[in-house]
Recover the amino acids of this structure.
């Protein structure tokens, strides 16, 4: 069966998930999911001696669902430590529902082969794990969810977490947790907060046990069943890894300059506007150019959102933005800022981006800068599979932010090496073209014709403007027509749209 | 049927609620209650033009349950404003489930007589409303719940709030609310936070609409459906009314001095201890005496808890306590402190005192100072009905705190006017004697024999010590034997223990 973005979804999958029918068609009232609560009485302790004891006390059994957060990113020790103990205990057939999976989680491949893990849902799958999934090592397809989509799935009960194992940069013995104090400070615990709120059993794993009561409280004692102290939960180096070096690449700087011009030239650029730029060299450069204009024009933003970097913290400290709304931090300075600046505010993933919430912050967002591995003639975006069809990306907040904000801007080079970015048809649709307003490349921009208001408004903009078809043709002129990927028959990943419907599937290669 | 505190509970009530069997007997795992969530999409507004429009949009119908918070205490305008609109709309047969009811809510009497309100659950009932209930104007008995008990009832689903109308000292248009900014700053919104989290529909009513995003966030936009701006939500004078003047009464000062000696003489008085003293002249005096000792002995408390007053704020600012954990503020300085001092931390009622939570803060509390209208030979305490049997008090956190803390101390004069405080049998049991450790009067103290460890430890204490029987006899020697109250047959109030079982009933007078 074909869905709204013209993707073929097998009927049995449509029956189970429904098919994507448009950004806001399948957002309906629902009864919120619930957890089983085991009350803790006076004089009872939550502090356990080991992860093994916590696994046993939690009642974890074959077939259950467990979760982890990805705030430590490439520096995470927790998932591998816990999975090793679980495997040693002989527990099998688990569903793994972390907020995301990083390269550092390569040991998962063995746990999959050994039947410890038989189902996975995640925002991202990197390197070796992604490649192994694409090869088809799992019987059941992985379910890829956006950050907002995961929060929705947990709130609606599509994901029910039996036991959440949450790395806690600091915790007291009763389970009051924050991410701004400790040895491995990751800052915001926005993704973990959701797991703690809905899971039946929650285990806080910390390497920094502090006196009661630990404040500020990101995860409260009322959402934690057990506390375990370990030697180390994460590597601070790894938390900031890969994030955010300012680019000196002329092509990237040109893209960033064009993107900044698009924002500044838009009707959204005024006192009190808001934006999210994310990470990566070009994004930081956009922020830099935008900052110069804001200083020149005397314009201040009401808030910046998202994955936060030091570039955002500088804007806050210089008074150019009034507040930072923070679901995740990508470097150490932003984690430190969250701990000390009252205008740098932590929120959970539900408030950040869920389509099923009583109103997410992205609904109030003016401009979002987003990346793409591929964007096609329908403006559909792929941030998940490479040009070889192998899973190596992450859904993240891409489809959430772009759907909700007033103007979404894709920044991407026209070609990468010998690979075109603007293509006829993306390998995998993560974000439907209806959510994308402007595509910015180093040779110029393409505005989505569905946004005639922007087409009109940008007529006077001094940036080369093309149709998306013209951008694609220029890309193909340079590197030629990409070879078609030879997929197998097996579906290795289901791409769930933020509303829970199926927007695409990924087959083995 | 007789319960654990030897009170006769009619069988049909026992069938519905169960009977009190001991403080921790009926605390069991349960599936948490849930709300119906109506998602808010991008570009949808929550801001409505009037309370009337909000009532209509909320879908409020005959027979539903509505709630309010009591953080404005005697200064509250919200409940009366909303109830007047509801009555004008002709909606009937509502269950009213506010966190408490004050004198200022006298108009409720008319709404009860007119059938707008047919069921009530509350912590307290004062003056005219209490008297009217005691006269028997309601067909169905009021259910009295402690602050922790109400949080438990909401979490377990015993109370399901269809629509919560929450006074918001400040809010943005998307429903981010706090109590530290605005015209009627009440400080902590600890009781309101629970309603917002579990109610199907939540209406934030504010007189101070601020730009988005309003921070700090006590109640997040994800828990609010509608926002209404009105002229005024409360009278700041009334918020602090009746609270906390330091006593000059020699009898009260003597009681306070004895209470402080009990704390200082106990094994709990050491570096990092914690306490809750509440409001009222004698309590403040206890804090004053305790402070002098802490300075002299160089001892610092890890935290103070509860209803917070300026006396606690002074301890924090002087470095004598490390943190304030705050569910409610009783005066303006404490509300201000919450807004500016990072070590003054806001929590909700579930985290404060619920027996059904994954661990309340009171479970970590060393010492609690509590008041009493009556205490009897079994150490049972009455804080609800007067010596005439008329309802005029509030359950508050009395039974919660005393059950959970390490040492609960009742401070009360032996007699009030011509009325004995220490009696053979209290009119109404709010807190079972098993939760009470020490009774302090102006003539000396009585230690609960069930706490032989304290009896032993206090042998050397230079305070006159009596049995509770001796205190009662001395009281009766002075004022004579109290006349028995002539109750009617009708049950006007059910006293629910914090675990949801029935500890006592109140009949009409």
């Amino acid at each position: 069966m074909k869905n709204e973005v013209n993707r073929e979804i097998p009927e049995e999958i449509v029956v189970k998930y429904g098919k994507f029918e448009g950004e806001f068609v399948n957002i309906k009232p629902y009864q919120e999911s619930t957890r089983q609560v085991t009350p803790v009485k006076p004089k009872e302790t939550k502090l356990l001696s080991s992860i093994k004891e916590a696994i046993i006390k939690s009642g974890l059994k074959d077939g259950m669902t467990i979760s982890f957060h990805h705030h430590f990113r490439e520096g995470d020790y927790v998932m591998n430590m816990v999975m090793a103990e679980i495997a040693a205990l002989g527990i099998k057939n688990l569903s793994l529902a972390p907020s995301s999976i990083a390269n550092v989680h390569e040991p998962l491949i063995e746990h999959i082969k050994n039947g410890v893990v038989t189902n996975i849902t995640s925002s991202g799958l990197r390197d070796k794990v992604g490649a192994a999934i694409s090869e088809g090592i799992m019987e059941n397809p992985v379910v890829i969810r956006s950050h907002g989509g995961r929060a929705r799935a947990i709130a609606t009960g599509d994901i029910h977490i039996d036991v959440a194992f949450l790395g806690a940069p600091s915790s007291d013995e009763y389970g009051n947790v924050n991410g701004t104090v400790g040895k491995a400070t990751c800052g915001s615990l926005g993704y973990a907060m959701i797991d703690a709120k809905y899971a039946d059993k929650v285990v806080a794993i910390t390497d920094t046990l502090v006196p009661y009561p630990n404040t500020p409280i990101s995860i409260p004692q009322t959402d934690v069943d057990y506390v375990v102290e370990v030697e180390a939960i994460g590597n601070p180096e790894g938390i900031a890894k890969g994030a955010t070096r300012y680019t000196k690449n002329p092509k990237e700087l040109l893209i960033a300059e064009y993107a900044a011009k698009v924002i500044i030239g838009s009707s959204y650029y005024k006192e009190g506007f808001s934006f999210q730029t994310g990470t990566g060299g070009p994004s930081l450069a956009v922020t830099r150019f935008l900052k110069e204009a804001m200083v020149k024009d005397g314009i201040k933003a009401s808030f910046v959102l998202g994955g936060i970097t030091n570039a955002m913290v500088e804007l806050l400290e210089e008074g150019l933005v009034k507040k930072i709304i923070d679901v995740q931090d990508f470097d150490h300075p932003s984690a430190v800022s969250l701990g000390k600046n009252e205008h740098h505010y932590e929120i959970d993933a539900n408030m950040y981006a869920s389509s099923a919430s009583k109103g997410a912050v992205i609904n109030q967002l003016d401009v979002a800068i987003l990346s793409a591995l591929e964007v096609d003639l329908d403006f559909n975006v792929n941030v998940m599979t490479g040009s070889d069809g192998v899973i190596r990306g992450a859904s993240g907040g891409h489809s959430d932010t772009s759907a909700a904000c007033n103007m979404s801007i894709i920044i991407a080079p026209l070609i990468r090496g010998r690979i075109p970015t603007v293509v006829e048809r993306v390998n995998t649709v993560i974000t439907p073209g209806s959510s994308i307003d402007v595509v910015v490349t180093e040779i110029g921009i393409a505005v989505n014709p569905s946004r005639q208001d922007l087409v009109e408004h940008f007529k006077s903009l001094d940036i080369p403007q093309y149709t998306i078809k013209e951008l694609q043709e220029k890309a193909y002129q340079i590197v030629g027509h990409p070879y078609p990927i030879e997929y197998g028959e097996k579906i290795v990943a289901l791409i769930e749209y933020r509303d829970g419907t199926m927007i695409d599937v990924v087959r083995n290669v």
Remarks:
- The two ends of chain A are 22 Å apart (CA to CA).
- The first strand of chain A starts at residue 30 and ends at 31.
- Residues 163 and 201 of chain A are 5 Å apart (CA to CA).
